[in-house]
Design brief:
CATH class of the largest domain: Mainly Beta
Radius of gyration: 15 Å
CATH topology of the largest domain: Thrombin, subunit H
Strand content: 35-45%
CATH superfamily of the largest domain: Trypsin-like serine proteases
Largest sheet: 7 strands, antiparallel
Number of helices: 1
Length: 209
């Protein structure tokens, strides 16, 4: 098992709108997690986004992108209004760019539900991500765009395609529907972004949530 050291922070902010109507209740921003990776032997910091997908008492799981946590590092986590604690990489999928972190002691953070159905072509969705680390207490960018179908890469791999603009730091962020349910995890992009497919995420998390 590869251990990776992270600093993870959860933030809360106000409700937002998705598509032509509001999310049914507050946007699930308390599920958001900033992921900071500190590679051993360097002064670099790798920044990404993630989301809480399960809470088990004081412990929990955070889903992010594999390329965010692919390097060895010393590990810290800091949930919403909580104390620093450790996180461990327990499952990775390099092909679909998914990584699941186990946090033994995690205060704060609400578990994000996984959508029962895949995204609908042309519908508008919301990304909970932190471009360039732009998060503060009770403030996080809410990015929106339409689901634009599947995109086949040069490597012949299928990704979900979104008209959600992203920047470095958004990798691993959750794309949610109008009920605040997860439908994708951002992989890469810029003006157009790409993420893991809904069915891939469901299969990846099987047995953990």
């Amino acid at each position: 098992m590869k251990k990776v050291l992270f600093a993870i922070m959860l933030f809360a902010c106000s409700c937002c709108t998705v598509s032509s109507h509001q999310i049914d209740g507050p946007a699930p921003v308390e599920s958001f997690a900033s992921v900071y990776v500190f590679p051993e032997g360097t002064t670099r910091v790798i920044f990404g986004s993630g989301s809480v997908v399960r809470k088990m008492g004081s412990a929990g799981y955070i889903l992010t992108a594999e390329h965010v946590c692919e390097t060895k590092a010393a590990t810290w986590v800091k949930p919403l209004y909580g104390e620093k604690t450790k996180a461990i990489v327990i499952k990775e999928d390099k092909v679909n760019d998914l990584c699941l972190l186990y946090v033994p002691e995690m205060e704060g953070g609400n578990a994000l539900r996984i959508a029962p159905n895949p995204p609908v072509l042309g519908a508008t969705y919301t990304l909970l991500g932190a471009p360039h680390g732009m998060v503060q207490e009770r403030s996080i960018p809410i990015l929106k765009g339409a689901y634009s179908g599947m995109y086949r890469s040069r490597e012949n791999h299928l990704w979900s395609m979104w008209t959600i603009p992203i920047a470095p730091g958004c990798s691993g962020g959750a794309v949610v529907n109008n009920k605040g349910e997860l439908v994708s995890v951002i992989h890469h992009g810029r003006a157009i972004s790409f993420g893991a497919r809904h069915k891939t995420i469901v299969a990846f998390l099987k047995g953990y949530i």
